[in-house]
Amino acid sequence: MVFCHLLRKDENELLPARSGCTIEDHVIAGNVEEFRKDFISRIWLTYREEFPQIEGSALTTDCGWGCTLRTGQMLLAQGLILHFLGRAWTWPDALNIENSDSESWTSNTVKKFTASFEASLSGERELKTPTISLKEKMERYSDDREMQNEIYHRKIISWFGDSPLALFGLHQLIDYGKKSGKKAGDWYGPAVVAHILRKAVEEARHPDLKGITIYVAQDCTVYSSDVIDKQCTSMASDNTNDKAVIILVPVRLGGERTNADYLDFVKGILSLEYCVGIIGGKPKQSYYFAGFQDDSLIYMDPHYCQSFVDVSIKDFPLETFHCPSPKKMSFRKMDPSCTIGFYCRNVQDFKRASEEITKMLKISSKEKYPLFTFVNGHSRDYDFTSTTTNEEDLFSEDEKKRIKRFSTEEFVLL
């Protein structure tokens, strides 16, 4: 999942739509169209305004505080794209999307943020809930692969809609965040968002999502038996396949500042086919890192306040869910607190991924301890409390302690 060797070098500049780039091992350097299609096809989730009021608050926008939730959504969306559509899929209309001027867009964002935030503090909005059902369409177009892919494309986006019933929408994520002491308007860190995403996927009641789960590393440790248990349990009786898993690893790449020694490791991680990106950013801003160019990271930026889109209507517009141009940032500006994501389609895939990642960890650690580790066995074998929880207590006491510790270490996001 690597984007590298882009042509433009200017620091922190919006990369133009015509920059050359290599994508994956088999793409020739400079294949501009392939890079553009691959990047634009990723689901882009940004600040929104004028959406249904968040329960327990007067807020109808997340401008100014929801950026880490948005970058977490983008990472999960990429995992779902891999799960349902595969790595080779690209949006057929990707190259038709218009590029936007970053400067005017940013200026407009500030104005819209001020107005929408003030408006959200007064009055209530009528709630709209998604009612779309795609089952009949799937059956009708089952022999048309492209139409089937487009139906899933829209379905995945609809799961992230800004309405109370959207499975992975802002409203639901905030509701799960309450179990860790967070509320609408608070700032969320990468580690907290990792646990919120896990709960959202575990609690999702949708037949298409029975085959995927999320595992969050404990204290920078991935316990292989715990992962495999999650992949092999709660499967339907008529389905003997193991689950896919998205592994989320909250880490710190240094103390107060990111240690430059970790650059090669981060580039290596982003180059792995299993990697679905990094929830990170720089101080006061969260970004979704999707690749790299030389010593800079390529990212998708959630800090654009766009208007609410009702994803429950037929053929809702897709353009605002796809980013027309990538941006880049020097690695040295990256905040050390981040969460790395990996997608594994089945148990065998997880075993291969753990071997490859472990090799990379050993090479990058040199004389230091690795950033995180894969160990055999269950967490309980190492005297850790199991993370299995019931519905009445979505976060165990052990999880709450870890989340609280990570929260105090993470940056504040605006």
UniProtKB/TrEMBL annotation:
EC category: hydrolase
Boundaries of every Peptidase C54 catalytic domain copy: 33-354
An annotated Gene Ontology molecular function: cysteine-type endopeptidase activity
Pfam families: ATG4_LIR, Peptidase_C54
Gene Ontology terms describing biological process: aggrephagy; autophagosome assembly; mitophagy; piecemeal microautophagy of the nucleus; protein processing; protein transport
Compartments where found: Cytoplasm
GO cellular component: cytoplasm
Family matches, as InterPro entries: ATG4_LIR, Papain-like_cys_pep_sf, Peptidase_C54, Peptidase_C54_cat
Reactions performed catalytically: [protein]-C-terminal L-amino acid-glycyl-phosphatidylethanolamide + H2O = [protein]-C-terminal L-amino acid-glycine + a 1,2-diacyl-sn-glycero-3-phosphoethanolamine
EC number, as in UniProt: 3.4.22.-
Keywords assigned by UniProt, alphabetized: Autophagy, Cytoplasm, Hydrolase, Protease, Protein transport, Thiol protease, Transport, Ubl conjugation pathway
KW Hydrolase (keyword) present: yes
SUPFAM superfamilies per record: Cysteine proteinases
PANTHER family reported for this sequence: CYSTEINE PROTEASE ATG4, CYSTEINE PROTEASE ATG4C
Its biological purpose: Cysteine protease that plays a key role in autophagy by mediating both proteolytic activation and delipidation of ATG8 family proteins.
Protein name: Cysteine protease
